[in-house]
Amino acid sequence: MHTLLMILLVIICIGLITVVLLQEGKSNGLSGAISGGAETLFGKQKTRGVELVLLRTTIVLSVLFFLIMLALTYFNL
């Protein structure tokens, strides 16, 4: 069980890194965070198409990462 969870964790980590690196930046550094960051914070700029798929994939993979880490901690006791 521990080996299976470790293999799944490595696969999810590689997928999560890949998906995060494929996303383009929402702002250009600190100046974008000050001037245009509020628009993305409150949802005025809607994501569409590929970016929406990448965003949802990131959320799913991060939740799976969290659950597998909890399972590994539980089964390691």
From TrEMBL:
Superkingdom of this protein's organism: Bacteria
Family matches, as InterPro entries: SecG (IPR004692)
Name the membrane topology term: Multi-pass membrane protein
What GO CC annotations are associated with the protein? plasma membrane
A single GO molecular function, which one? protein-transporting ATPase activity
Which Pfam families does its entry note? SecG
Transmembrane ranges, per UniProt, are 6-22, 53-75
User: Which controlled-vocabulary keywords does the entry list?
Assistant: Cell membrane, Membrane, Protein transport, Translocation, Transmembrane, Transmembrane helix, Transport
Q: What does this protein do?
A: Involved in protein export. Participates in an early event of protein translocation.
Q: Which family does it belong to?
A: Belongs to the SecG family.
What name does UniProt use for this protein?
A: Protein-export membrane protein SecG
The lineage, from the top, is:
Bacteria, Bacillati, Bacillota, Bacilli, Bacillales
